Amino acid sequence: MTQDYYDYYEESEDDAEQYAIRPNKTQLKKDIAELFVLGEKLSRISATQLATLTIPDAIQKAIREVSGMPLNSARKRLLKYIAGQLHKIDCDPIKESLAKLENKSVHAAREHHQVERWRDRLLAEGDKALTELLDEYPDVDRQYLRQLLRTAQKDLAASAPPRASRLLYRYLKTVLEGESHFDDAEDDEDIDADEQDDS
User: Fold this and answer.
1) What kind of architecture, by CATH, is found in domain 104-198?
2) Residue 65 near residue 42 (C-beta atoms within 8 A)
3) % of the chain with per-residue pLDDT over 90
4) Cβ contacts of residue 71 below 8 Å, gap of 6+?
5) C-alpha pair distances (Å), 54 with each of 48, 51, 58, 96, 161
6) Is 60 exceeded by the pLDDT of residue 78?
7) pTM of the entire structure?
8) What topology does CATH give the domain 3-92?
């Protein structure tokens, strides 16, 4: 074989190596489609949550813009632009942070429903539900909880605004989160005043 052939063969190997590391078109389309979905997810979180993620300012700005847009072709174009920009950076940290935010949201929703169930049971069943709650959470302020429950039941019977019911919800939330205190002296005074007015 001539030297020309070897020179050509060596150049071809280099070309082959460059070709091998170039992304496959099908894979590229799949990656962009996944980043499009990621952009869609990012557009649904709050501006505060978005600010906690490590995303370049230009992409954050585009995400904030797309979050307020109606479902039309302009929105789709902007999401494609966002996907293209995300393709240029390492998105793994963004995906991890977003997954944590989503898990937190799911946990918060579950906790909210649990607190609502306890509050509704207390209002409907009274002492029976209260006994079960105290058995499960023995460190709660029993006197304060009974006071809140009595006032909430009176409000409910009188078709009054459910202020005490909201306070009951907030207190139950602190209990279920593992807190054994309720730092709102003003609300305590309001409840005390209601109790005195009723007596």
Assistant:
1) Orthogonal Bundle (1.10)
2) no
3) 21
4) none
5) 12, 8, 12, 11, 44
6) yes
7) 0.47
8) Diphtheria Toxin Repressor; domain 2 (1.10.60)
